[in-house]
UniProtKB/TrEMBL annotation:
Lineage, top ranks: Bacteria, Pseudomonadati, Pseudomonadota, Alphaproteobacteria, Acetobacterales
Similarity field: Belongs to the cytochrome P450 family.
GO molecular function: heme binding; iron ion binding; monooxygenase activity; oxidoreductase activity, acting on paired donors, with incorporation or reduction of molecular oxygen
Names of required cofactors: heme
Protein name in UniProt: Cytochrome P450
Region (Disordered) location: 473-497
UniProt-annotated binding residues for heme: C417
Coiled coil: none
Domain of life: Bacteria
Keywords for this protein: Heme, Iron, Metal-binding, Monooxygenase, Oxidoreductase
Length: 497
């Protein structure tokens, strides 16, 4: 007899001339009450375990070996957890901590308590939105270099856009954080090793369900050790180069080093510096690479949106390359990225472990439980988004914004992504620069499988055809929609002057 959780995940995708329902896992329909098969399925892919009823506004719970798992899919309650009662929910889940500690040590993404508080202030300051204009020339230059490289590739060659976007964003973050080039060999090395790391780590941590509040450390298999060693070798070399004075004095790393010199009580020794640098490097490139990859997929499947993007770039920029100053007028480009982050949030699960007992909705929650806020579900909840599985960038245009706490690709509250302005600016700018010159075309019917391990990526990469565009005259373009307000609750608009 075949066991249900071993069955391949069924993928739904509907494409017509005007409507796109992009690829997503079909609703889970296994027998109710059997949670072990679900856990085993979640080990392979966390997106394929949700039933139709999970995509509703509600708070629910399951127990697995006595462990309480609380799923929170209601904006008001999400605000309670991430903002109002944040101290109780500051701690990341053991699954997340254990899956990333080998790579990031006590880096910000997984630390908590005094270490997190002290370093959060430092890191969020150096990637703060006020610094984005200073780093935007790096973004523009690196994207243009990629465009020049792509120009050398013969028209209609098949490329895998996922590693291409990973190389682009790794180079951008390296130049911003360390003030130095990474180069093709190292960007490929980091990107390939992180892909391998994601495939190898177990992000369910059965030890936690068997009673260990801290979960069990990951088994460091030779393959996992090799993947980590390859990433650490690259990161250590750029940190050491930097400390030896070979990096730029305007880089993020330099800001960290100077802060430490002024405030020795911060205790940022070489290991802590390496961990924070690795954290910014990994958190800062992998998420933006995934966003851009999904955006290319969506444009390839929705030519009517792709046309609007092309026309807008032509109207706003003519033949010159888009720059930071153009972003406030690139409404379609921004809306495509916003909608991409709704449909494919690169961090599709925000998992926490509560310190003390609490009551969430009608549920009494024991200390040490697993609290799951799942942007993948929230962003596809029908009461919050009309036709939630469809790609409709227009829902982010003309001043329209989702209801508070219903759209959280960057999380919210004190642990909100400190790099959100950097990441958004980078994604919109790279898309505009590359889409001005190239199209990415997917064969009709090519299967794309969204898979969530640590981040949400297309499981088999995204091979497609790179097509060189011939420019159209700037006048031959649609009118741009009126300016829209962007309201990120934690900070102001990154695009306004
Ligand atoms: C589109 C791009 C990005 C997305 C969607 C994204 C998303 C997120 C999310 C959801 C979290 C919170 C995770 C949780 O609470 O469990 C997070 C944290 C973080 N992100 Fe981003 N991120 C992006 C880009 C960046 C960039 C460009 C940087 C750095 C330059 C960055 C640095 C960080 C750091 C350091 C944290 C940990 C913060 C903490 O725990 O206090 N991210 N990101």
């Amino acid at each position: 007899m075949r066991v249900r959780f071993r069955q391949p995940v069924e993928i739904v995708e509907h494409v017509s001339d005007t409507v796109l329902e992009p690829a997503h896992a079909a609703y889970y329909s296994g027998p109710p009450g059997k949670f072990l098969p679900l856990l085993l399925r979640a080990r392979r892919d966390f997106l394929s375990i949700w039933r139709v009823g999970d995509y509703r506004e509600k708070v629910s719970q399951v127990r697995l070996f006595g462990r309480q798992i609380v799923l929170v899919n209601a904006p008001e309650v999400i605000r309670d957890i991430l903002v109002k009662r944040r101290d109780n929910y500051e701690r990341k889940s053991p699954q997340m901590r254990r899956a990333l500690e080998y790579l990031l040590g006590d880096g910000l993404f997984i630390s908590d308590g005094p270490t997190w508080r002290q370093r959060r202030a430092l890191v969020s300051d150096i990637v703060h939105k006020d610094r984005v204009p200073a780093f935007s020339p790096i973004i523009e230059r690196t994207a243009l270099e990629m465009a020049r490289r792509w120009k050398q590739i013969p028209d209609r060659t098949t490329i895998d856009i996922l590693p291409e976007m990973a190389a682009l964003t790794a180079e951008i973050i390296s130049r911003s954080v360390f003030g130095q080039e990474l180069g093709d060999a190292d960007t490929a090395e980091v990107s390939a090793s992180f892909t391998q790391y994601q495939a190898l780590v177990d992000s369910t941590n059965p030890g936690y369900f068997l009673g260990l509040d801290e979960g069990l450390p990951m088994v460091r298999t030779p393959a996992l050790r090799r993947a980590v060693r390859r990433m650490h070798t690259v990161i250590d070399r750029i940190v050491e180069d930097h400390l030896a004075g070979r990096g730029s004095h305007h880089s993020m790393m330099e800001l960290l080093v100077r802060r430490q010199a002024r405030n020795p009580e911060l205790g940022l020794n070489a290991v802590a510096l390496r961990n924070e640098a690795a954290t910014i490097f990994m958190a800062g490139h992998e998420t933006t690479a995934a966003t851009l990859t999904w955006a290319w997929y969506l444009l390839a499947r929705a030519p009517w949106v792709e046309r609007a993007v092309h026309d807008e770039i032509a109207a706003v920029c003519g033949d010159r390359a888009p720059t930071l100053d153009d972003l406030p007028r690139l409404h379609w480009c921004q809306a495509v990225i916003d909608e991409t982050l709704r449909l494919y949030p690169p961090v599709p699960i925000l998992a926490r472990q509560n310190a003390e007992a609490d009551r969430i909705g009608d549920i009494d929650v024991r200390p040490g439980s697993l609290i799951l806020i799942v942007p993948w579900l929230l962003h596809r909840t029908e009461s919050l988004f009309e036709a939630p599985h469809e790609f409709r960038p227009e829902r982010f245009m003309d001043g329209r914004r989702p209801a508070p706490y219903s759209y959280i690709p960057f999380a919210s509250g004190p642990r909100v992504c400190p790099g959100q302005h950097f990441g958004l600016t980078e994604a919109v700018l790279c898309l505009a620069i590359l889409a001005q010159r190239f199209r990415f075309v997917l064969p009709p019917g090519q299967k794309v499988v969204p898979q969530c391990r640590l981040t949400l990526r297309p499981r088999d990469g995204l091979p497609g055809m790179l097509v060189h565009r011939r420019r159209r005259p700037a006048g031959d373009a649609v009118t741009c929609p009126p300016a829209r307000e962007r309201e990120h609750e934690s900070a102001g608009c990154p695009y306004s002057a």
